[in-house]
Write a structure and sequence with these properties.
alpha+beta; four-stranded mixed sheet; Cytochrome p450; oxidoreductase activity, acting on paired donors, with incorporation or reduction of molecular oxygen; 527 residues
Length: 527
């Protein structure tokens, strides 16, 4: 049945095309024309607008948009189905959108995937801007993802990264004779899943793998240009394409798993509170003694009376889902690209390893406190984020009509900020396509959203709240991988031959898994 939904017969496509064509001409004949001073843009085709320019070829959309911007300028318009899209491709225009007019562009477009899976608009990433969003954003910034909270979870990261090192070492021992490669992409994915799961859910969660798989499937479905989002007035497309039933099935599964997790946490919390109320002695312990995870924090906030909007279970579910969406694949993607660039650029790899091995000489196990002064490593992470921002396109929507760079932007227009193109703008970056971490040495440019030529995590009100969480994982993992192992490509492949093709999707990850051969260099604690 699912195959039929996603592989309609030719006749269905033909009928759908006729319906869209008739609808287009009817809307065009009845629409009231409002003249606006819009940005320039390429010519449009009837019905589909400029969709053919994004859908044709094998390049990801942000590549195509960069090429179009070279012709039409740093602010241009596109017609994507029924909707108007404004594409921003320069730091100056980004500053206007994310600072000067940040409030006007503080909304994000509502997609079908969001409508179905957001737990009644509980997702902080996509819920409408307003009082509720401000409250939940504040909770994220001050309670869940603050520097203090991230630091308090450092033991989780240290344990899981050490497990990664041991897993890679074990794989090397099993393949030492034949020098077989390992799938480092897979290993990194396991790492980020484990860290995020323990941070959000705690040490035990029986349905964790099913939950992670379901959330990833949601974002695969949400990662492209879908007909229901391109032609929102044609409601029947929600069911005709099979997208809505598929999303509803996944959401039902995620909802059930998160409901069980919340119930289990609430039970443990009640049991521990009961023990504390009995004033147990030092020889007694609560029946459930575990590290406070983010679900615990949210339940505690739910029980308090300090919130303007009372938190319900759907809010907890929405935040938990956001944490996995932002804390697993995007973080893994940054690490994957960093190792890819290091393997492709042996000079940089050797320099990074020299810095790390000299600073940590004699250590058999590394802790987060040991990594604070690794300046070149931090430059490598910045350079990776410049060339490979995990979210290449940052999407906003205008809440009201306003003016940007002398052009009128109507209410409801989608705005795509091309962070990938901005990070490769030759007006701001010398030799912009070259992986050269030294460009950040002695530079104050950072990725916190105030340097508009470098916005891998976004900027303004909608900047990613999990920057500290993500960078803590990336730094610690890269230090371990470069300290304990040397790396090379399999089958005698030269470093410059490494395939760096990007996948097309919600996250700008590698198209192909990173297969590399590790050689242990530093002895381990258990050896």
């Amino acid at each position: 049945m699912e195959e039929m939904l996603y592989d309609p017969p030719f006749l269905l496509y033909f009928v759908l095309f006729l319906i869209l064509l008739v609808t287009y001409w009817w809307k065009r004949s009845t629409a009231r024309v409002v003249k606006l001073r819009l940005p320039p843009g390429p010519r449009k085709l009837p019905l589909i607008g400029n969709l053919h320019q994004l859908a044709s070829g094998s390049l990801p959309p942000h590549h195509t948009l960069r090429d179009l911007a070279k012709k039409y300028g740093p602010i241009m318009q596109l017609q994507l189905g029924e909707g108007l899209a404004i594409v921003i491709s320069s730091p100056e225009t980004t500053r206007e959108v994310c600072k000067t007019h940040d409030l006007e562009f503080s909304q994000r477009p509502v997609s079908l995937a969001f409508q179905v899976t957001s737990f009644n608009n509980s997702s902080i990433a996509f819920c409408p801007y307003g009082t509720y969003w401000r409250q939940m954003r504040k909770i994220c910034v001050t309670e869940l993802l603050s520097t203090t909270r991230v630091h308090s979870n450092r033991t989780i990261r240290e344990e899981e990264v050490w497990s990664l090192v041991q897993s890679i070492s074990s794989s090397h021992c099993h393949t030492k004779m034949n020098q077989l490669p390992i799938n480092l992409s897979h290993q990194i994915s396991i790492l980020t899943n484990n860290i995020t799961a323990r941070t959000v859910f705690g040490s035990q969660c029986k349905d964790r793998d099913e939950f992670i798989s379901s959330v990833k499937q949601v974002f695969v479905l949400a990662g492209g240009f879908d007909l229901p989002d391109l032609f929102p007035s044609l409601k029947f497309l929600n069911f005709l394409t099979g997208m809505k039933p598929a999303l509803e099935k996944l959401h039902k599964r995620v909802d059930k798993i998160l409901g069980n997790i919340i119930d289990e946490h609430r039970l443990k919390r009640s049991a521990n509170n009961m023990y504390r109320s009995r004033n147990y002695t030092n020889h007694d312990k609560p029946i459930f003694d575990h590290h406070e995870d983010l679900i615990d924090v949210l339940i505690k906030l739910q029980d308090s009376c300090d919130l303007e909007f009372k938190m319900v279970d759907d809010n907890i579910k929405g935040i938990a889902q956001d944490m996995f969406a932002g804390g697993t694949e995007t973080t893994a993607t940054v690490m994957e690209w960093a190792i890819s660039e290091l393997v492709k650029n042996p000079r940089v790899m050797e320099k990074a390893q020299a810095e790390i091995r000299q600073a940590l000489e004699g250590k058999k196990k590394i802790y987060e406190a040991d990594t604070q002064d690794l300046v070149y490593l931090k430059s490598i992470i910045k350079e990776t984020l410049r060339l490979h921002p995990p979210g290449a396109l940052h999407v906003r929507q205008s809440r009201e009509r306003c003016e940007v760079s002398g052009y009128e932007i109507p209410k409801g227009a989608k705005v795509f900020i091309n962070a990938w193109a901005i990070g490769r703008d030759s007006e701001y970056w010398v030799d912009p396509d070259k992986f050269w971490p030294e460009r950040f040495e002695g530079s104050s440019i950072d990725f916190r959203g105030t340097d508009y030529e470098f916005i891998p995590f976004g900027s303004g009100r909608r900047i990613c709240p999990g920057i500290s969480f993500a960078t803590a994982i990336v730094e610690l993992a890269l230090v371990h991988l470069l300290y304990h192992f040397d790396w090379k490509l399999p089958n005698g492949i030269n470093s410059e031959e490494l395939d760096m093709t990007e996948a097309i999707g919600f996250v700008s990850s590698r198209k192909h898994n990173l297969l590399v051969i590790p050689t242990p260099c530093i002895p381990f604690v258990d050896e």
